[in-house]
Structures are given as C-alpha cells and as structure tokens.
Amino acid sequence: MSALVKSRFIFVLPALIFLGIFVLAPIVSVFFTSFYSWDLLSPARFTGLSNFKRMLEDKWFWNSIWVSIKLLLLTVPLTFFVPLALALALHRENTSSKILRALFYWPYMMPAVAGTTMWKWLLSYDLGLLNHILKSLGMKPVAWLLKPTPALFSIAFLRTWGMTGLLMMMFITGLQNISQEYHEAAKIDGANRWQIFWYVTFPLLKNTNLLVLTTSIAHVFRDFAGVYVLTGGGPGYSTMVTPLYIYNTAFTQFRIGYAYAMSVVFLLISFAIAMVTLRVRESK
Prior knowledge:
Layout: H1 2-33, E1 36-37, E2 45-46, H2 50-57, H3 59-90, H4 95-109, H5 112-122, H6 129-136, H7 148-176, H8 180-188, H9 193-204, H10 206-221, H11 225-230, H12 242-251, H13 256-283
Antiparallel strand pairs: 1-2
InterPro entries: ABC_transporter_permease, MetI-like, MetI-like_sf
Pfam families: BPD_transp_1
Protein name: Binding-protein-dependent transport systems inner membrane component
C-alpha cells in the first residue's frame, strides 16, 4: 500500500510544484508586501497596517467594490439563464445543433482584447455601427460608453456575449447526462413541458447549476481586460472595477504596497462570496 501511495504522490508532485510556484508563492508574497510601502524604485519600507488604514478611508476603492458587485448582479443572471435557454434548445445531437453550438462558442475562443476592441467600435458614439443603424431608422444615437448606466450595461452585455458559449456547453453536458427515463415517467404522469423542466430537469441540474454560477461569478468578479479596453473605468469612476483600480494604483501611481493590500482584501471578499455560494448549494 505504501508503494502505491508513493507512486500516486509522484504523479501528483508536478502539479503541486506548479501550484506552489505560480499560485501559493505569489499569494504569500502579496500578503507580506501589503505591509510595506514600495514604489518599485526605492527599497521597500515596513509600514505595518498603514496601507489597510488608508484603504478604509479610500472612497474610490470602496466605490470599485460596489461597481464590481453591481456588475456581478447584472451579469450573473444573464450568464445563467441565456446559456440555459440555449442549452435546452441545442442539447440534442443533430447537425444544426452542432453548427449553432460552434457559433455560440466562438466568442469564448476569441482573445478578450480582440473581442472587446470589436465591441468598442460597434458601440462608438460617432463611428459605431449600432448608432449608425439607429440614425438610419430616424432614432437618436445612444452614448453607450459615455454615460454611467449604458456603460455598465454594455460591460454586462459584453461579459454575457463572451461567456455564453462556455456556460452553454456546461449545461448541455448536464442535460445529456440526465436519463430520459425521468422525462418519460413524467410524461406518463401527465406533466407538460414546463412541469417536466421545473420539477424534473432543473432539480437534476443542481450540480451543473452550481458549476455555472461559480464559473460566472469568478469570471465577472476578476474581469480586467474587458473593462480596461472598453471603458477604461469611465466615464469618471462609474465602471472602475476593483481589479482595474488595483492595476492603476500599482502601475500608474506606483503604490505597490497599497495595491497589494487592496488585493488581499479583494481576495478575501471573493473568497467570502464563493463560500456563500457553496453554503447556499449545500443548504439545498
């Protein structure tokens, strides 16, 4: 038995080394550096809890947390129900379904910067295709990226567009793993399509639902490239999500220690949201 355990450990060891070097070590480094004042040029100076005290008084940091939460509340329902609806329509194995799956999965395969740049052009106030269509229909152009509310909804739409294909495939996998005997039994009992979905299919997708929710929350809460390219956090600070605010603090203001302190708090908030999601799942 000991030889078997050793052999298994040998196979797992490369993954453990990789996680230790590229995941655990950076987290530990960020935690310790958060207690220092450092600008990348001069030597780091230990300041204790001063970075965290400053954070409590930094209204723009807490604004970025609130913006991230608002974006989460806007995007997660869309990235749950839209992929679920598509999966219900395309989960059967036929040629047309396979072609449509590939088309919906394509945005997820596109590099984030390229996809966001494309949408930035489409949503441009003066040169954007969407406003050109609105003008041709006799309607006023919309400042999609120049006003706070449309800009936030544009980011939510962009995240939904980019993630729908991946989450749809998760739902399709879950649907295909459900035995048809459950559906046939429900039909014999006189259940209609909605009743079969609500009382049979949806409960049997509970593990897939959790996977989709956690994946969606993780992608939205740590989104940087999409916001950076599409709005840059503007107009004003209306779309300044926390990862972008931390980036600006570190690499435009060169307050590395303070940026690391914000990263630690943001990591704890993300962990708390993940734990709440898991607790809700376990309670059901």
